Structures are given as structure tokens and as C-alpha cells.
Amino acid sequence: MLIRRNGFLSRNHQARAHKLLRLSLLGHTNTKQGTEENHDPTSQQIPTEGMFILQKMAASSLSFSLLLPKPPPPLLPFSLRRCHKHLRPSELFTATRNVGGARCSSSTASVATEPAIAAPQEAQKEESTERIVLPTNDSSENLLRIRHTCAHVMAMAVQKLYPEAKVTIGPWIDNGFYYDFDMEPLTDKDLKRVKKEMDRIISRNLPLVREEVTREEAKKRIMAVNEPYKMEILDSIPQDPITIYHIGEEWWDLCAGPHVETTGNINRKAIELESVAGAYWRGDEKRAMLQRIYGTAWENEEQLMAYLHFKEEAKRRDHRRIGQDLDLFSIQDEAGGGLVFWHPKGAIVRHIIEDTWKKIHINRGYDMLYTPHVAKADLWKISGHLDFYKENMFDQMDIEDEQYQLRPMNCPYHILVYKRKLHSYRDFPIRVAELGTVYRYELSGSLHGLFRVRGFTQDDAHIFCLEDQIKDEIRGVLDLTEEILLQFGFSRYEVNLSTRPEKAVGDDEIWEKATCALKDALDDKGWSYQVDEGGGAFYGPKIDLKIEDALGRKWQCSTIQELLQVDFNLPQRFDITYVDADQERKRPIMIHRAVLGSLERFFGVLIEHYAGDFPLWLSPVQVRVLPVTDTQLEYCNNVARELKRNGIRAEVWHGERLPKLIRNAEKQKTPLMAVVGAKEVEMQTVTVRSRFSGELGTLEVDSFISRIKDACENRTSL
Fold first, then answer.
1. Is 458 part of the annotated catalytic residue set?
2. Which of 212, 510, 609, 665 is the right S-S partner for 670, CB 3.0 to 4.6 Å?
3. Which family does it belong to (predicted)?
């Protein structure tokens, strides 16, 4: 068994995973794609042809779908058929099928087809779907017990092989388990040794025995085996007696359980050690750096193979790799970690996101704001950020004997805009929105591509309203959220409503009104949601929303983990008021709201959702014009200029043989290729090939432009 630190599968595992998934040993169901029962709304934006699509079907389980269609062979452009008969067919196109809108790599068993004249698209056979349902820790207590026991078995194996290793903690996690050790760094070869030792322990069918001891006895045993971390853990356990779990009579650990009865209840072929990472003890960077071994464990081998296949697909979609391959963004070491450089193509996509966002907000009655990136430190004292959020803020700057602070949030700025004048009750609701860049300090070890950065742009908005307007305003936010997310192909959400915690500001009456307004708005919208009793912020109830991508992963786009937050705190801190109908000063309700969260994080999610294969309307380059020879270059430039004049993002590529130009366009995931040969110049046309639909034939330029515009307006492919 080949185990690699970076988590990639060995060739044997790839073959086994593909075979097992095709057989669908867990009881697949064949369904017709597009039926109401199984229709995935995101498939309208993401082509479903290809080897592999994974969907998360319910909170209690994962359903992985392996789509194995018979791919339609690609067509040859008219000019190629006429002008390049001397080329071998295999030189004309390198055909690779799409997966979720992107080409497969060899690690996910891509299918290459020989070029030929394809049958009509509608003549292709219906795709069948084979589903493997994976349990979770919540849905299967047996799986949870397996994973917890695997952590202990791994720790036992490590200490057998490396007696000097000191053990710390080893919990179960979402997809498996980990254990932290104080020892020398491990290599890939070491992981293989550990896995073999685990297999031996499992095959011995050793019993897991629970024992209760006094605190004094536990201390005595820990001191006898010289485990200082366990002594610290023991000191943090408040209750007596202390529970210990033994594996046979050879190894024990402080543990509350649960575990399987014997190691023989674990299927050793359903376990994989995935990687090694550094982790500070207790998460404190000032304490010892430990070696954390991650593993995954399942009930049987078929589940493991399905999970590993899912993991491979997630790697293929990694936004960091795709961002580099497509030249979308970078993070430059010379500038510092967590600071994003948007390259021209990425900047175009950002512009489209921003433009879409602004148009929808303006249409829904929001006023746009632009505010400074820094402010006097006193502002953050008033807001409370310096008291409660200082560890996430950059150091202050001394400017002319005054302290200034890079902003970590936009809220105080919007309040200052509100306070610029006295408001009447007739002015409400007041809605302001900004794409405001903020800066937050993050440890370098926690930075992760676009998902965890130090400077990012939030789509912040604040609504100032009266108490009796809360429900309508919240419903408006939900409608706006749905409109924006649907534009980008997200139609599945997980929604949570968090209510008043034990410690909170504001009286009971206003909390009750605000919470009921949130519930009523969600009920009116028809969205299902879970209630997190006591999970709200101290200053108001909130709604959290996670979006589901093409792999069924749920993303919290907002870095402050909320779609919508009612705030009773900041209006009081800044003493904002309005004049009511009786000419008395009253305090308005303030609603925080972020739909995308941050543009950087949302862009990362978009890249992985589409695997970099953006739909036509969102693609940074929509058309690549390709001359058969440089003789047609002048005509190609004229075509590109006409496309650009009509708002279509086009470029001309030349200087290579046509097959290579086509392959490069495919690698760059360009939605449309317009091939120009001598015949096209003569007829004033282009031969068009779509990544999503194959060959579209020969079109007049005006017709080509019209079809692109219609497709972009309707958010469809061409």
C-alpha cells in the first residue's frame, strides 16, 4: 500500500477505486439525469458530462455520484476538414471530457476520445448515476467508535516503533482521526511502517477495556511511563473518577470513550494514513511543536475508496493550483503572506462579480459607499474592537502624534455616515452597502490561498430601520441573497438561526421581537433551517448561511460567519438616534449583512465549484480567435475587434500550428474557439467550437455575436 504525505493515491488505489465505484457495491440506483427527483439545479451552469461528479445529499450522509457517460466524439471545424486533410486525425484535437465543467486529469481516470464526426447530441444515451452513500460520525456511532479506536491503535503503533515518542491527544474528526506526538519529524517511509504495525495490532483482535481509577492512581501511572502531556491533560479533567482505556494488556490512554469492543472490529483495509503536519501543543505557538498524523477510517473498503476518490477530485479543483494554471491570482512572498494580487484574468472575474453585486443592490434600494482604509484608534475604542478584537488587528501607526489603525471591519464607518445628520422616522429604512477592504492579522501558519488571508474585500451592508420594519427588511435580505447566489450557480444552502445567549445586551422584549422577525422571514421565504438556541452573538440574533458547491461541500462565505446579524450594541455605543412621530429621540435597529462574505474567499469557492471552467458569461476570456495560418491574421484581428466592440471578451492567438492553438485554448478553459481558415475569410464567417457543446458549425460574425449575447444574458452556455 503506497501512502504519500501529500495524500495522492497510488496507481493501484486509483484502479481499485475506479473499479469499486463502477461496481457500486453499496447498492447503487440508476436514475435518469434531469428528472425532477434527481435534478441538480447547479447542472444548468455546470455541464454534467464526464467521469465524476460528487454531491452531498443530506446532513446525515454523503452521496457520491460517479457519472459514466459515453462521451460524444469531437467534431472538426469546417476549415480543418478542408485545409488539413494531410494531418492525422489524432493531431487535430486532443479531446478530454468535462467534469463539472472542467477537464479530468489522469489521476481521476479521464477519458480521451478519437476524433470523428459525432452523432447529434440528442442521440446520445442517457447517463446513469451510481451512488455510494457514506456515513458520518453523527449518522453512525459504529463509525465514530472505529475512528476513535484507530487513533489509539495508531498511538500504540507509534510508541512500539518509536519508544521515545510522547503521546498527547488523539480525537476522531469528520473524515477520520489524528494523534499528536512529541517526537522527531516523520517521513512517508515512517508512515508506511506505522500503518503496517497498526495492521498487526488490528489482526491480533485485542480487547478494548475500560477502567475507572482515582486521580491519584492515574497520576501514579502517568509518572511511571513518563508522559508529561498526559499529566497536563489529567490536571484539566474536572470530574472523578478518571477513565482509562486499555488495548489488551500492552497500552493504555486517558479516555472517556467510546470504542469498539476489540481491534478485530476494525477493517484494516478501510484505513489510510494520509499526512503529517506540525501542530503546536494546545494551539499555542509559544509551546512545543508536535507531529500530527492524520488518518481516515471507514466501515469497509468500498467507503474508503469512495472517500479517496472524492478527495482526489477535491485536489483537482484546488483553487491554488487552478489559479496558477489559469494565471488568475498570486500571493507574492516579496509583499507578504495573505495579501492577494489579482492578475488581469482574475481581475476581470472580480469586476463581473462586483458589477453584478452592485446592480442588484442598487435595484433593491441600497446606496453605495466608499470609506477609508484607516481611521484614528479612538474609533475602534468606541466600537469595542480594541477591547474584544485586538488580537486580530494589525499594530497601530503613529501619525503626527496620533494613533491610526487599519480597519478590521467596516461597521463603524457606516455608522459615521449615518450620524452625519439627524434622521426622521420617515427616512427609514436606510440601506447602505460597500465593497470595503479590511485587514486582519492571521498567523502565517493559518493562511490558506484565498480562503484565509490578511487583506480582503467584504461585501458589507448595513440597514438602519424601525422595530416594525425588521421582518420585511430581513425578508428582503433573504431575497437579495438568493438572487445573487443563483447568478453564480449556487442554489443549495444550509441555514441556521442563532438565538439569545446567556449573556447579552438589550432587553428581553427587543430580543424577542428581533428573533421572531428572523423566524417569520425564514418561514415566509420557505427555507428550512435549524435553530441554534443560545448561539447568537451577545449583541443580537443572527442567521448563518452556507452554500453547497458541485462536490457537496458547504462553504461559509462570510468570514464573520453570518449572513445577517441584528445588532443592539453598536447603535448604543455610537449613540445613534432618530426623531419619531412624537418628536422624541429613539434608537434605530441596525442590521449587519454580508452575502458573499469576502470577494477573495468567494472567488476561491467559485474556482473550485467550476473547477476553473467558468460559464460563458463569467469567463475572463470568452472567445479565442485562431487562424489556421498567419495569412488569416488580419481578418482574425478584425473579428476580435468586432467582438470587443460588442462587449465580448476576445483575444487572438497565433504563431503555432492550429492543433497546438486548440490544445492551449482547451487548457486555458476558453469557452469558445473561433477558427478561421481561407474559406472563413472568403465567406466572412468563423467556425465555432464550444467547450460545452462541441462544434457549432460555421457562423456569420453578426450571428456569432448575437448568440453569445443571448447566452450571456440568459446565463447559459453556447
1. yes
2. 665
3. Belongs to the class-II aminoacyl-tRNA synthetase family.
Write down the pLDDT at residue 109: 28
Q: How far is CA 257 from CA 211, 261, 271, in A?
A: 11, 11, 20
Q: DSSP code of 51?
A: S
Cα torsion for 107, 111, 112, 118, to the nearest 10°?
-160
460 counts as catalytic: yes
- Of 159, 458, 487, 565, the active-site residue reads 458
3-state SS string for 451-465:
CECCEEEEEEEEEEE
Q: What is the pLDDT of residues 524-568, one digit of tens each?
A: 999 999 998 988 877 788 898 999 888 888 887 743 335 667 777
Per-residue H/E/C for 117-151: CCCCHHHCCCCCEEEEEEECCCCCHHHHHHHHHHH
Share of the chain above pLDDT 90, in %: 68
In the beta sheet, which residues pair with residue 674?
625, 688
Annotated catalytic residue within 56, 592, 669, 689: 592
Model-wide pTM > 0.85: no
Give Cα 368 to chain centroid, integer Å: 28
Q: Which of 460, 544, 567, 613 is catalytic?
A: 460
Q: Indicate if 411 belongs to the active site.
A: yes
Among 97, 462, 601, 649, the one annotated catalytic: 462
Q: Which of 104, 150, 255, 411 is catalytic?
A: 411
